[in-house]
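This protein record is not my work; I was only asked to verify it. Take the sequence as given and treat only the tokens as open to question. I have pasted the whole thing underneath without changing anything:
***
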Amino acid sequence: MLACLGWSAVNSIVGAQLIESVNPDVPGAAGIVIIAVCTFIICTFGYKIVHAYEFVAWLPPLIIFLIILGVFAHSGDFVDIPWQTGTAEMGSVLSYGSVIYGFATGWTSYAADYTVYQPATQSRRKVFFWTWLGLIVPLLFTQFLAVAVMSATTINGGDNRYQAGYDATGTGGLIGAVFINLGTFGQFCMIILALSIIANNVSRNG
């Protein structure tokens, strides 16, 4: 329960940052409330509705992440940051690895809830493989994409729109810096991405 609440809180904060980046008049607390209320509404309809919602909810964020990948790759702002040595670099690598592990292992405490409709005779290897595949692909894709975009904050020693956006509204501002040249469409993508947090929270709280 604590793991679910913790990750839902983190997710909601990121969603609120995206909303605030699009409209600074919406404070972070209001964005969190919007996401939490929408999550609660979907969860009240029960297990089957949650599954039906999750069945389609992955598609819009996938499209938006692909847009982010395309726009950022086209910008040429990726920075190949050289590896350092020493305990500080080792600590950074290990801490990032722990974040990746934490994102994946957070699902284990309620994996049984999502396989409850599987027949008792279902192959355990199939359940494991499809669960693993369903986690490893989106986790690696989104987190490698995040590393690539975050590398742009080092341009000109940190004096750039990526670092400025990150300083202003965290992750929301960083993604906003990618979409900055797409105008209203970019803002639309950010709102859809913020609302996609609901699908993540529903699976943790449903």
In short: Residues 2-205 form one domain. The first helix runs from residue 2 to 22. The chain is about 75% helix and 0% strand.
